[in-house]
From TrEMBL:
This is Two-component response regulator. Residues 2-116 form the Response regulatory domain. Gene3D superfamilies: 3.40.50.2300, 6.10.250.690, Winged helix-like DNA-binding domain superfamily/Winged helix DNA-binding domain. GO terms for cellular component: cytosol; protein-DNA complex. Residues 124-222 form the OmpR/PhoB-type domain. GO terms for biological process: regulation of DNA-templated transcription. Residues 124-222 bind DNA.
Length: 225
């Protein structure tokens, strides 16, 4: 997933960023309302994490502005104040959930998974194509009823491709989904990742392949199509 994090506590944002990146997500971190708003309006995010207190203002203003612009990204707000009025104000601004500092990183990850489950895009609990079965919530993949182990990044790539159905996913779009703004990536990195995914599917005996449409991108389809 591509995640926007508006957080001005550098130590916290670095810790959360590492945890999310290790889970296979691309995380863009900003400390101000202004920078976060520019990124939110120009990039397609799957989730956002917004602190109430940012360097140049109130995170609730950021969420309110995003909602007014029609951005429905599931949003978790963070705050150091555990008062009902603050939580109500955040939810009324358009946040979907609220978490009070200090918090457990495991709880934050669980809340993000819950937000993702509730979003319209992921109502499907299971994807089937050929002899491949992919469950996004548990990040489990089986081929011919046998479990296939993928890295977090391989899972993220498969998730993007399988949700696209028969639509082509351009290499640039895949790269932007897998890598944050501060991460350098190249066409070779995407090609290497797709090669690893192809090899694992083939080794497992999948009747599905990642097909390259030269100059266009990638599509997941049954072999022989």
């Amino acid at each position: 997933m591509r995640i926007l994090m508006a957080e001005n506590d550098r130590l916290l944002s670095e810790a959360l960023g590492r945890r999310l990146t290790d889970a296979g997500h691309a995380v863009d971190v900003f400390a101000t309302v202004a920078d976060s708003e520019i990124a939110w309006r120009s990039t397609s995010y799957d989730l956002s994490i917004v602190d109430v207190m940012l360097d140049d203002g109130d995170g609730r203003t950021l969420v309110r502005s995003a909602r007014a612009a029609g951005l429905r990204t599931p949003t978790l707000m963070l705050t150091a104040r555990d008062e009902i009025g603050d939580r109500v104000a955040g939810l009324d601004a358009g946040a979907d959930d609220y978490l009070v500092k200090p918090f457990s990183t495991d709880e934050l990850m669980a809340r993000l998974r819950a937000l993702r489950r509730r979003s319209a895009e992921v109502t499907v609990t299971e994807f089937r194509i050929g002899n491949l079965v992919y469950a996004p919530q548990s990040m489990s993949l089986t081929v011919a009823e046998g479990a296939v182990r993928l890295t977090a990044q391989e899972h993220a790539a498969l998730d993007k491709l399988i949700r696209a159905g028969d639509r082509v996913t351009p290499k640039r779009m895949l790269g932007e989904h897998l890598y944050a703004f501060h991460q350098d990536w190249s066409d070779n990195a995407i090609e290497t990742l797709i090669h690893r995914l192809r090899r694992k599917l083939s080794k497992a005996g999948a009747t599905v392949e990642v097909k390259t449409l030269r100059g266009l991108g990638y599509v997941l389809c049954e072999t022989g199509e």
